[in-house]
Specification:
Layout lengths: L1 H16 L1 E4 L11 E10 L11 E11 L3 E3 L1 H4 L7 H14 L5 E3 L2 E12 L2 H14 L5 E7 L3 H26 L13 H15 L4 H10 L3 H10 L4
Parallel strand pairs: 2-7
Antiparallel strand pairs: 1-7, 2-3, 3-6, 4-5
Helix pairs in contact: 1-5, 6-7
């Protein structure tokens, strides 16, 4: 129990010490993939051993955000990899807002690039990089001052805050496009049905039918589309 508390304290401390020096000047794309370049600057964990000038560790990489997709509490209950508490929360969402209340699901991947050690304090280096990226007009770049041994936690904090800042814009664009409205197919949001139709087209072009089948199961729509699905295999 004590070890768990210590670990939680370390995580909370890393989050509290993470600072976004330069945020992206545009939101996540609503209808496409977003590639965000980041510079994560930290004071090296061995800093106490350094007797000369201050040093900073600069990690560069790209966060790839897939296009946000429309989901519902019903869909979320079929996701894998969550703990029991999360599924209880999804069930509560179903009871409170309805099984087909629309929301957005974001997914990310991190592609770590180079790492270098430069002279200067972490704050000075981060501010210098932030000024350079601003002058160069990098609208989809971020400069983050984080914690060295938990730099990935610092990155996750930034991603969370950036996502929260983008949600209103993304929801507005999807609402204007009619993607959040309920369809006549079991009340499933129109955006989900459009995604399913795109997946049918992908299978016809040689895509994996298993991916389509899983998506239909997640929406509890396989019976609705069963004939259309089986037609994919009929000659």
């Amino acid at each position: 129990m004590e070890n768990r508390e210590n670990e939680l304290n370390r995580l909370e401390d890393a989050v509290a010490r993470t600072e976004v020096i330069k945020a992206p000047s545009q939101y996540l794309h609503t209808f496409g993939i977003t590639k965000l370049h980041y510079y994560l600057v930290t004071e090296p964990s061995y800093m106490d051993l350094v007797k000369g000038p201050s040093e900073a560790v600069v990690r560069e990489g790209d966060v790839i955000a897939s296009m946000p997709v429309v989901v519902t509490p019903t869909y979320m209950t079929h996701l894998e990899g969550f703990g029991e508490e999360a599924y209880q929360y999804f069930e509560e969402l179903k009871r409170s807002y309805g099984p087909n209340a629309p929301g957005l699901l974001y997914s990310y991947s991190n592609q770590l690039g180079g790492t270098e050690i430069v002279e200067g304090t972490a704050l000075d280096v981060a501010q210098r990089i932030g000024g350079r990226t601003h002058e160069q007009g990098e609208t989809l770049s971020a400069v983050i001052k984080g914690v060295d041994d938990l730099w990935d936690v610092s990155l996750l904090k930034f991603i969370y805050e950036y996502t929260m800042a983008s949600i209103s814009s993304n929801l507005g664009a999807m609402r204007r496009g009619g993607l959040l409205s309920s369809s006549e197919v079991n009340g499933v949001p129109t955006g989900a049905l459009r995604r399913i139709e795109t997946m049918f087209d992908d299978v016809r072009k040689g895509g994996d039918p298993g991916v389509l089948k899983r998506e239909l199961d997640m929406w509890e729509l396989y019976r609705v589309f069963e004939d259309k699905f089986l037609d994919l295999f009929r000659k």
